[in-house]
Amino acid sequence: MRIEQLTYSIGAELTDVKLADAVHDDGLFAGIREALLKHRVLFLRDQDITREQHVAFARRFGELEDHPVAGSDPEHPGLVRIYKTPEQPNDRYENAWHADATWREAPQFGAVLRCVECPPVGGDTMWANMVLAYENLPEHVKTQIADLRGRHSIEASFGAAMPIEKRLALKAQFPDAEHPVVRTHPETGEKVLFVNAFTTHFTNYHTPARVRFGQDANPGAGELLRYLISQAYIPEYQVRWRWKKNSIAIWDNRSTQHYAVMDYPPCHRKMERAGIIGDKPY
Ligand code: SIN
């Protein structure tokens, strides 16, 4: 297997490797896992694998989970279908910077995404290195956010376009989660800036040390949250991947965010994602 770094900050392409072999080859899988921790997102081309192989490879990292709104392949639980069709051109959930499922108590470890069909151009996906985003924050901001916690909501994101009864039922099933604004990567010990499009507000901002009068809370907290969320938008932290049929991306969801660019006219873009269950951030 050859590993070619794609930017100084994030991403590498793996060549001379068949992902199907890594289902059974422990040494090869260990090499891929090590590369994932180092580069945070890995890309491969021309992986003509079956859905069984896709699921089996992803399950080497851990158990898979379905998505409560996006449907899964009925024959392959855990394989979420992210299908855009000309009939549903406005389904735009993926074009916001996010880490997957941070509205869960235990957001995902990572994912393995395969392109089944894509537009001839456009429809790229971008990833950002949120360890670097944290490292480069001004010191006074690091101090300010050291103990802050954020609320992450499926209700306010995937639920927003639903009728109220359906939205409330979704929230009852997945109550908002609370996570540290700066999490520690459980394997590398790195600090990660952990707020994204699912984060609605800080839960412990309103303390005497931060808020002199009640009106300090909302503008101060809102501006700080927007500033932190916008760190993923910085090009120096990013890599951009152009899809072709049977291209694959594997990412560490604990230290990255991603954004699926919807710059293509109404057409088919079919992606299948095996999302791997993670652990509770600390
Ligand atoms: C996702 O947001 O997990 C999917 C990204 C994509 O469709 O490119």
From TrEMBL:
Record GO terms (molecular function): dioxygenase activity
Signal sequence segment: none
Keywords of the record: Dioxygenase, Iron, Metal-binding, Oxidoreductase
TauD/TfdA-like domain residues: 3-274
Work out whether the entry's keyword set contains Hydrolase.
no
Q: Does the keyword ATP-binding apply?
A: no
Q: Name one Pfam family in it.
A: TauD
Protein origin, superkingdom: Bacteria
Similarity comment text for this entry: Belongs to the TfdA dioxygenase family.
Quote the protein name from its UniProt record: TauD/TfdA family dioxygenase
